[in-house]
Amino acid sequence: MPFKTIIEPFKIKSVEPIHMSTAAQRENYIREAHYNPFLLHSQQVIIDLLTDSGTSAMSSEQWAGILRGDESYAGAQSWERLEAEIKDLTGYPHILPTHQGRAAERILYGYLGGKGKVFISNTHFDTTRANIEFSGAEAYDIPCIEASDHESEFPFKGNMDIVKLEELIKKYSAANIGAVILTVTNNTGGGQPVSMANAKGVAEVCKKYGVLYIIDCCRIAENAYFIRHHEQGFEQTGYRTIAQQMFSLADGCVMSAKKDALVNIGGFLALRNEELSTACTNLLIITEGFTTYGGLAGRDMEAIAIGLREVFEDDYLNYRIRSTAYLGEHIRAKGIPVLYPIGGHAVYVDAGLLYPHIPAHEYPGQALVCELYKIGGIRAVEIGSVMFGKYDDNGKLIPAPMELVRLAIPRRVYTQSHIDYVIEVFDDIYTNRKTTRGLRIVKEPKFLRHFTAHFEEL
Q: Can you tell me whether residue 308 is helix, strand or coil?
């Protein structure tokens, strides 16, 4: 019988101090940050759940690899190890290293995009959509119908709607489809996993119409966990093998190594097609660096190569998924509306349901992230109408489909007692929910406004 207590499968070798601020200090800090947690200083934060990107704690093996880093400009041994690791994992022959995932997105989607082009995804994430739309192309999200039911136990709500995929390809013509992008796990869709059957269905449609099929694989190991435990036929299959099977269905992948490669910086683009790879390589050299480092130091490439192995270990993935579920299940039991089942890397709270009195144009998700910080020093991120809302021709807000707040858990960083503290903070969040006020935007950029926008309380 498995024990209820989740034991972290690692020992702590080095510690980083946390400044335990007071509620009065946090009120002042968030006001000075214009009610945008992105603009807080890290020492002002007690528990940082803003993102799981680049916030992992690296292992002793990764730190040892950093000391072995070969910093040669061309043909470094560290590059050879990283290239071999990625080729073994993905099966793709052309590997382009980048300093992070959005650089790989900019290169690939900038080349494939442009006015008149269309990109289709289960759900585009913020930087993916921004790179696509910046090129002049359009981005369409077609999550499966089950994704809209937040209470059902359907295990693969990250799936793409295959019927709608074929309809969109027919509507816009295959020649105008820049790429079909399957995001695993589906980050903006609640960190929900994608089934192997769905990945195969997408592959069949793309092959039928001759459309490029790309996997955004930054959380491929976490997705493999859900396939093994919830999809028939994979119960005895290794996590890495599951990932390799999924890669075999597509034409290439984009990865932010800052997630499931367990590092603080890095990414890559991997492709089957030599002609497409050559075009992207030209852009890589112009904007990132030479083909054998692409904006990365040799030490970073060593850490990525090791992380891509460690992330598929059974003990690690069991701890990772169970500890995320621990947070989600406990706050759900308190009455906090969350997307269910709990995803792999984060817990998503539906702020629209938590604060039904706050309309979309007053940004209930932003209100919740501010309350989390003021009450408990917890930094989270809004994934709703601040991040994805648009304006019509009259300047009126077109809200996002959901008003979510993501509690993204850094890998190998926090213990169960830290998470228990977060759970306690939600007691006050729930108690004060009816008196929480919305916000309005007083300053914003054209793209990715959630990073730098200024707000004021209503």
A: helix
Q: Is the peptide bond before 452 cis (omega within 30 degrees of 0)?
A: no
In the chain, domain spans: 23-52+313-457, 60-310
CA atoms within 13 Å, Cβ hemisphere of 365: 26
In the three-class reduction of DSSP (H, G, I as helix; E, B as strand; rest coil), residue 216 is classed as: strand
In this prediction, residues 81-106 reach a mean pLDDT of: 97
> 23-52+313-457: which CATH architecture?
Alpha-Beta Complex (3.90)
CATH code, 60-310:
3.40.640.10
Q: What is the 3-state secondary structure (H, E, C) of 137-172?
A: CEEEECECHHHHCCCCCCCCCCCECHHHHHHHHHHH
Q: Which residues partner with 338 through β-bridges? A: 349
Cα four-point dihedral sign 402, 371, 319, 299:
positive
Helix or strand (DSSP H, E) at 24:
helix 23-32
Task: Answer whether 255's CB lies under 8 Å from 98's CB.
Answer: no
Q: Give the per-residue pLDDT at 448.
A: 84
Q: Three-state DSSP class for 86? A: helix
Query: Do the beta carbons of residue 394 and residue 365 sit within 8 Å?
Result: no
* Residue 231 DSSP class: S
Residue 317: partners with Cβ closer than 8 Å, 6 or more residues away:
221, 222, 224, 225, 239, 311
Nearest 10 degrees: Cα torsion 420, 425, 428, 431: -60
pLDDT at 145 over 80: yes
SS3 of the chain: helix, strand, coil, percent, to 5: 45, 15, 40
Identify the burial level of 453 via C-beta atoms within 10 angstroms of its C-beta, where 0-12 means exposed, 13-18 middle and 19 or more buried: buried
13-17, 124-128, 168-172, 372-376: the lowest-pLDDT one: 124-128
Entry pTM: 0.94
3-state secondary structure (DSSP) of residue 439? strand
Taking the C-alpha atoms of residue 247 and residue 268, their distance in angstroms, rounded to an integer, is 14
Q: What is the mean pLDDT of residues 223-235?
A: 97
